[in-house]
Write a structure and sequence with these properties.
heterodimer; A: alpha+beta; Beta-Lactamase; Heat Shock Protein 90; 5-stranded antiparallel sheet; 15 helices; about 20% strand; rod-shaped; B: about 150 residues; alpha/beta; Rossmann fold
């Protein structure tokens, strides 16, 4: 089944093999022509299209990614600002409290409790507040845990406060074993001493702030410290204090954006920014898929259109190339056919000339030999000297018989040469019948044979080969004459059969042909009239001649009543017969 | 009286052999090797039958036939043809030839045909004679007028 489809689609030139070789053979390699046509056309059409498509796609993708990064960067900046603001606000408030109060007032536990209360009312999330003196001992403490009197002088954060005047801790568990952020500010007193005000912010408050950002469903916003430890819980990387597997560059004031993959192996865009004067880094992880999805849809449509275009271009290219090459092939075939035809015609014409030339040239000497030998025989038979010598008579007879044989050969050659010229003319049937009848009238008269000609009026002049038709008539007349005894009757009857055919019957009053022989009468060298000196070719030649002018001949016979030859001729020569002209 | 036959063919050997053979068969034979010569002879002498080769250099057989029929309509002509074709035969018959024979021909057949041709000519002349006789009987003066 698929092979038959392929065969049907396959252009005709595909399996063409040129019979003519030679130096111009490559001109006729149609597969090559076709392949080249397809290649060139397809290349010219497809290459710009593909370049344009790829460039456009890349450009679009780059733009989208740039936009993606920009959006992430903006998101990070916005969130970063909020977080910075929040933290610096808390620090400033603490700073304000430290400077607004004296060590003494803050050292008053009730007063400090009131401040904590106020802070929680305004901001919320402060779990405790402590006052530490310059020796590092916590003097006063208010809050949920009993931490008074602790010595912080060796704590790293205390030394940080001493150094920088302010301190914001990472997420720590501290003595309380609860996650919180420590804020500490130092106030230098005029006498050279100082005190430190320390507040703890519940981690929950910080988490709420981060979680409160409107960043989208699949976006993860969290805070880490500089060592990459989570300060707030993360959607992808787990709860706080987990270490995340993302490499962070050293401090830079700018927002950083890069692409990566998360633990689910999804494409992500990660943006982060250092929060100055804190150990924190704000990080936002966005899923790329979410951002790029609309673009993917466009991309699909784009790819589909591109693919369709390419397929269409290829199909059209193939179809056009096949058609073109097919036409070239057809034209070429015609050219080759014409060439062959001309060659063949030429050859046959030359052959015909040769045959008739040879026959003519041989016929004349043959006639001389015939007469000389005949003369010798005459002398032999008419004079007594040699009459008694049968051997000499036999030799002369053998010469005459051989001459006769040669004459048959030359006659055959002439016949062959004559058949090469099929000339179509307008035929007037009564004219031909009377001509042939006229030629044989002597014999008819001599043998008292009557010939009746009955030609229907409605037979129009028609096209055929006059010489062949005459030969057919002549052969059938001769055949009938040979078959009949003296005093017989031959009837020729022609009728128009239908629009395209005419039928001619030759009915003789001969002895008829036996049924067994009837089917052999058109075979060469079939002798039905035993003993008669015939070539056995008359009816065979007739049969061939009728075929050549596009007709059919058949025979009916009944022993004792006669034989009827029926010829059916076309009123127009069939085209293939006409194209055979010269064969 | 012997039948007077003119044999016209361009092959000397053929003409010689055939003329001798026909002489043996009791004909009075004259020969000619081309059309022009043949026509000269026909003008000067009455032949009963002319045996004429169709294909000859110079004046060709068909033309000679036409001239013969013009000069001596009663002379019968038997065509000899080297072509095995009906066309030449028909052409010759149309122009008044008595019959045709294909070369090389069978002498007996030629003999028969000459006899037939002569018989026809004889019959033809007989009829003319009869007609002339009856004409002269009905109008004896006409004999004088015609001569």
């Amino acid at each position: 089944m698929p092979i038959s489809i392929i065969n049907r689609l396959k252009p005709r030139f595909w399996d063409h093999e040129d019979a003519i070789g030679g130096p111009y053979k490559h001109h006729f390699d149609f597969r090559r022509i076709w392949k080249r046509a397809v290649l060139v056309t397809a290349t010219v059409a497809l290459v710009p299209l593909i370049i344009w498509a790829v460039a456009g796609y890349r450009l679009h993708l780059d733009t989208t990614e740039a936009e993606l990064k920009l959006r992430t960067s903006q998101l990070v900046s916005n969130s970063w600002r909020s977080v910075s603001l929040f933290l610096s606000e808390l620090r400033l408030v603490l700073d304000f409290i430290a400077h607004d109060h004296t060590f003494e007032t803050l050292n008053d536990k009730e007063h400090l409790a009131a401040i904590l209360d106020n802070l929680n009312k305004r901001f919320g999330g402060f779990t405790d507040l402590g006052l530490i003196d310059s020796t590092g001992i916590q003097q006063t403490y208010v809050g949920s845990h009993q931490l008074g009197g602790l010595d912080y002088s060796n704590e790293p954060w205390f030394r940080q406060v001493l150094k920088h005047g302010v301190y914001i801790s990472e997420l720590v568990l501290g003595y309380r074993k609860e996650p919180h952020l420590d804020f500490a500010v130092k106030r230098d007193l005029p006498d050279g001493s100082f005190f430190v005000l320390r507040a703890a912010l519940d981690a929950q408050k910080f988490n709420e702030l981060i979680a409160g950002f409107e960043v989208g469903e699949k976006t993860d916003t969290f805070v880490i410290n500089r060592a990459g430890v989570l300060q707030t819980p993360s959607r992808y990387y787990g709860p706080a204090l987990n270490k995340i597997p993302i490499h962070i560059s050293d401090y830079t004031p700018k927002t950083q954006v890069f692409e990566s993959k998360n633990n689910k192996n999804e494409q992500t865009v990660i943006g982060y920014a250092y929060i100055p004067e804190t150990p924190f880094i704000l990080m936002i992880v966005k899923q790329k898929g979410e951002l790029v999805q609309p673009w993917y849809k466009t991309g699909w449509a784009f790819t589909a259109i591109l693919t369709t275009s390419i397929v269409m271009i290829l199909l059209v290219t193939l179809a056009v190339a096949s058609r073109l090459v097919d036409q070239i092939h057809e034209a070429d075939q015609e050219r080759v056919d014409t060439l062959h035809q001309a060659e063949y015609t030429n050859k046959m014409v030359s052959l015909g000339r040769l045959a008739s030339g040879v026959a003519h040239e041989i016929n004349n000497p043959l006639a001389i030999i015939n007469e000389k030998a005949g003369h010798i025989k005459d002398i032999f038979t008419l004079t007594d000297t040699y009459a008694e010598n049968p051997k000499l008579i036999g030799l002369v007879d053998s010469v005459l018989a051989t001459v006769h044989r040669c004459a048959e050969v030359t006659k055959g050659l002439l016949n062959f040469a004559r058949h090469l010229n099929l000339s179509v003319q307008t035929i007037n049937l009564p004219e031909i019948a009377s001509e042939v009848k006229g030629v044989l009238a002597k014999e008819a008269e001599f043998r008292s044979i009557t010939v009746g000609v009955d030609l229907s009026e409605d037979i129009p002049p028609f096209e055929s080969d006059r010489g062949k038709l005459e030969q057919i008539f002549f052969n059938l007349f001769n055949n009938a004459f040979a078959a009949m005894k003296d005093g017989g009757h031959l009837e020729i009857k022609a009728r128009r059969e239908d629009a395209d055919f005419v039928s001619i019957d030759f009915s003789d009053s001969g002895p008829g042909i036996a049924e067994a022989d009837l089917k052999h009468v058109f075979e060469p060298f079939f002798y039905s009239r035993a003993g008669e000196n015939r070539t056995g070719l008359g009816l065979a030649v007739t049969y061939a001649l009728v075929q050549e002018i596009g007709g059919r001949v058949s025979v009916q016979s009944e022993i004792g009543k006669g034989t009827r030859f029926h010829i059916r001729l076309p009123l127009k020569m069939p085209p293939e017969q006409q194209s055979d002209t010269g064969e | 009286m012997k039948t007077r036959v003119l044999l016209v063919d361009d092959e000397l050997q053929f003409v010689n052999a055939l003329s001798e053979r026909l002489t043996i068969r009791n004909y009075e034979i004259a020969t000619s090797l081309n059309g022009e010569d043949a026509l000269e002879k026909i003008k000067q002498y009455n032949y009963d039958v002319v045996i004429l080769d169709v294909a000859m250099p110079g004046t060709d057989g068909i033309d000679v036939l036409r001239e013969i029929k013009k000069l001596k309509p009663l002379t019968e002509v038997i065509m000899l043809t080297g072509h095995g074709t009906m066309e030449t035969a028909i052409e010759g018959m149309k122009r008044g030839a008595f019959d045709f024979l294909m070369k090389p021909c069978d002498t007996e057949e030629l003999d028969t045909k000459i006899k037939k041709a002569f018989a026809r000519k004889d019959e033809h002349e007989e009829r003319i004679r009869t007609a002339m006789v009856s004409a002269s009987i009905s109008s004896p003066r006409s004999v004088l007028e015609d001569d």
